[in-house]
Write a structure and sequence with these properties.
- The chain is globular and about 65 Å long.
- It folds into 3 domains: 135 residues, no CATH class; 55 residues, Dna Ligase, domain 1 (2-Layer Sandwich), CATH 3.30.1490; 76 residues, DNA polymerase, domain 1.
- α1 runs antiparallel to α4.
- The protein has a 5-stranded antiparallel β-sheet, with helices on both faces. Strands 10-9-11-12 form a 4-stranded antiparallel β-sheet.
- With 310 residues, it is of the alpha+beta class.
- Helices cover 29% and strands 19% of the residues.
Length: 310
């Protein structure tokens, strides 16, 4: 029995409406996983846990021939993550809060939209882990790939590209297609995205930049602010029910009431209207304001429209 055949056998033992294994994975769900999750080129997905309310498979957990991949909504501590099977064998799999399962610091699964509960997912993952450990004990180690074979993902202005080899990225830097100072890079095993200028493999690929102005004396010794990839805000006048459910304090009945009222009014024109309709606690509504924007529907705009962005 091959490694993958044994892995599929373990996965097949678990029956759940949100859990799909092998040929039972619907094509639409598989395509969504390949688009939304951090799946490296050449990877084959063998099992999927759909963690969305309406079955879009935009968020959840995917098992591949090379490792485990996760994609979560903005409310989760870690939006995306990946871990190889070798690393998974040593992972400390634990339930976290009410709807999360931690596999590692890099891989967290938010199961709030799935039909599988924490106990079931932890049991599934630990059984897979026992199989992986047993397999590795009886199988010679796989040689570590050369650096030139390592595949990288790039992120520019919030959009993801790749995967690319080290040589391809170096050529793009040399030709000016990619700027190290504003382009993020990530590969399997990294805890977070980093600027290419901070990654050893891609340093000194172009002429040294002109030194910046001397720092203000008042700021010496202060740690510079980090530059995370910006999270896209939810547009309330076009958001789907699934998008609304990702907002704090919003349940299914509130999301439906919101979309029904939005249709009647032909869109909301102010956050005051939204606050009155949702009737949320002030701290929850402030969280919604920080992660959303309100743009009037086109038919309501005459002349110069204005985007309300908090």
């Amino acid at each position: 029995m091959s490694f993958i055949d044994g892995l599929l056998t373990v996965c097949d033992k678990y029956m759940n409406e949100s859990w799909y294994v092998g040929g039972a994975i619907p094509k639409k769900k598989l395509n969504r996983v390949m688009t939304e999750f951090p799946i490296p080129v050449g990877e084959e997905i063998i099992a999927v846990l759909d963690c969305t309310v309406f079955g879009s498979c935009k968020y959840g957990l995917a098992l591949g021939t090379k490792g485990v991949y996760s994609n979560n909504d903005w409310t989760t501590t870690r939006r995306q993550g990946a871990i190889s099977w070798d690393e998974f064998a040593h992972a400390n799999i634990l339930p976290h809060q009410k709807y999360e399962v931690d596999i590692s610091a890099n891989v967290i699964v938010n199961i709030s939209g799935s039909r599988m509960n924490q106990e079931q997912l932890v049991d599934l993952l630990k059984n897979i882990q026992h199989y992986i450990i047993s397999w590795f004990k009886n199988t010679p180690p796989v040689p570590t790939p050369q650096q030139s074979d390592v595949e990288w993902l790039l992120a520019i202005e919030g959009k993801q590209y790749g995967p690319y080899s080290v040589e391809m990225i170096k050529e793009m830097i040399s030709s000016g297609q990619v700027k190290q100072e504003v382009t993020y890079g990530w590969k399997l095993g990294m805890d977070q995205w980093l600027f290419l200028s901070d990654i050893d493999e891609f340093k000194q690929q172009s002429a040294p930049p002109t030194p910046p102005p001397l720092p203000d004396m008042a700021t010496i010794g202060q740690k510079p602010a980090s530059n995370p990839i910006p999270i896209q805000k939810v547009e309330l006048n076009t958001a789907s029910i699934e998008d609304l459910l990702a907002l704090p304090g919003i349940d299914l009945s509130m999301a439906k009431r919101f979309t029904d009222e939005r249709t009647k009014r032909n869109g909301f024109s102010s956050f005051t209207e939204v606050r009155e309709l949702l009737n949320l606690q002030p701290h929850l509504f402030e969280e919604i304001r920080k992660s959303t924007l309100l743009k009037p529907i086109a038919s309501n705009i005459s002349g110069n429209g204005r985007m309300i962005d908090f």
